Amino acid sequence: MGRKRRVGLGVGAVVAAAVLVVGLLLFEPWLLWVDDTVDEDLPDAVPADATTPTGGPPGQSTSTVAEWTELSSSGFVSGEHGTSGTARVVRNADGSLQVWLEDLDTSNGPDLHVWLTDQDSGGDCGGCSDSWGIYDDGRHVELGALKGNRGDQRYDVPADADLAGLVSVVIWCDRFNVAFGTAAVDRIT
């Protein structure tokens, strides 16, 4: 084997190794076999008119206030990856809004986020070729990085967020611009 051929094979091996490393760092394929389970405390599902005592002097009646009120609840629709569970939008007694993901089960992936968007759940974009990539085409509100691909978790909705017209919760992969799953929401304002 000639010297040029050995140098060429060496350069080819270095280039192949570099491409492999870049590909691994970009796609993070090991995440497909790693589950991050989150188990944040979510109150039991109770009717919106359920109340808890606020307290008072003994012998006097006490008033009650709801700890939280459900504004919307919907099951997830699978997108680019199988996704199940429930997205619940609640208003807490202090007026703050949260999105609760209950029994979430989706694939792990790089750069996953939870969004509220103005795109309909289900990926239907009227015949476009990129039905799971439409969720960044309109307006969205970022709620934070996905805490885990499985389990129960809470996300605060920013107090100054304009929620008018937002109709779905999305598990969004920012690295590849696709929705892993979506859930329809309504009455969130």
UniProtKB/TrEMBL annotation:
Q: What positions does the domain DM13 occupy?
A: 69-186
- Residue ranges for the region (Disordered) are 44-64
| Keyword annotations | Membrane, Transmembrane, Transmembrane helix
Q: In what ranges is there compositional bias, type Low complexity?
A: 44-54
Keyword Transmembrane helix included in the entry's annotation: yes
Membrane-traversing stretches? 7-27
Keyword Transmembrane in annotation: yes
Q: What is the protein's name according to its record?
A: DM13 domain-containing protein
Q: What is the originating organism of this protein?
A: Nocardioides panacisoli
